[in-house]
Amino acid sequence: MTVAPTGVEPAQAPQDPPSPPLPWAEVATEDFQLLRLTAQPTDRGGSRGLRFVQWGRVERHSSTHSLLRLDIRLPGQMTHKEQNRLDVRVDHALRQVQIGGEHGLQLEPSNRGLGRFLLAQAAKWLQSRWPDYRVMGADLPARDAMNDDLRLRRDHVLRSVGLDISYTDGQPTQGHTLDAVVSQLRPFWNEDKVQALQILDTAAMLQHAEQQLQDMATQLRERDERMARVEREDSGLRFTITCLVAFAVFQAGLLIFIATR
Predict the structure, then answer these.
(1) 5 pLDDT band (50/70/90 cuts)?
(2) Do 161 and 121 touch, CB atoms closer than 8 A?
(3) What confidence tier does 4 reach under pLDDT thresholds 50, 70, 90?
(4) Is the pLDDT of residue 19 over 70?
(5) pLDDT of 135-187, one tens digit each?
(6) Which one, of 39, 47, 182, 37, lies nearest residue 115 by Cα?
(7) In the predicted model, what is the mean pLDDT of residues 186-214?
(8) Coil vs helix vs strand at 40
(9) Which range is least confidently modeled, 83-92, 96-105, 200-209?
(10) Would you put residue 95 in left (φ > 0), alpha (ψ -120 to 50) or beta?
(11) Residue 53: beta bridge partners?
């Protein structure tokens, strides 16, 4: 049996209007500085030798919003757009602050002190301008709690900058940060791991490294000269010993000849 069309379209569920785009979503960092990551003992992730990375920042302001964007750039290495970036967004109408995005803070190289450094820079920036604003809590990505080592390391970093953490029903993969006041944040990081270098510091470091290379080249040249002198003396001694052995054999042969005559 065929049902005749009624001409009435089925009712569609109302859809939520799309969220307005965030201001300055595509702004790029402008101010760059060098970071020195000091060598650390090898861990499960492998070797953690001395390394240098680039730290960039940019800030924008309007009457309703402010943005601080921090990123880490690795020389000769590409990273995903959401990696090595921390956004701090301020809503002046609501007097609220949002640190980070829905993907959390993804850093490469990991376990080198960069997360705590970026969060400390964000806390310092906020406290110098809006110490009475509220930092909104946020859900923590479940991927950071896939094993206890990652979760404990993440929680330690967040608590070190003054953010408290709570878990829903005690589930380690369902963590979230609690609301806090900007003035409660701690703008400190482990300077034994991460050191920000000024231009003059960088120049002095390069000059010192160049001087060390020159000193090593001089030492190597002097060593080569000593080795060449020793080799020449060794060759002379070998020739003398050969002559003495030949003379001794001749003398022995001569004595045997005389004795048998």
Answers:
(1) very low
(2) no
(3) very low
(4) no
(5) 999 988 888 777 888 888 889 999 999 999 999 887 888 888 999 999 999 99
(6) 37
(7) 86
(8) strand
(9) 200-209
(10) left
(11) 35
Q: Locate tokens 């479940």: which residue?
A: 142
- What is residue 8's predicted lDDT score, i.e. its pLDDT? 47
Q: What is the DSSP pairing of strand 175-177 with strand 134-135?
A: unpaired
Structure tokens at 159: 């608590």
Residue 141: both structure tokens together: 């990505």
In this structure, the number of other CB atoms found within 10 A of the CB of residue 190 comes to 15
Q: Tell me: cis bond preceding 131? Omega within 30 of 0 counts.
A: no
Q: Of 172 and 16, which is predicted with more confidence?
A: 172
End-to-end CA distance of the chain: 142
∠ CA 119-90-176, nearest 5°, is: 55
Distance separating alpha carbons of residues 184 and 131, to the nearest angstrom: 8
Could you tell me how many residues make up the chain? 261
CA-to-CA dists, residue 190 to 36, 110, 195, angstroms: 12, 14, 9
Question: Is the torsion defined by CA of 185, 150, 70, 75 positive or negative?
Answer: positive
Distance of CA 221 to the CA centre of its chain: 37
Residue 170 confidence (pLDDT): 77
In the chain, at which residue ranges do the beta strands (DSSP E only) sit? 31-37, 40-43, 46-48, 51-61, 65-73, 85-91, 96-99, 134-135, 165-167, 175-177, 180-181, 194-197
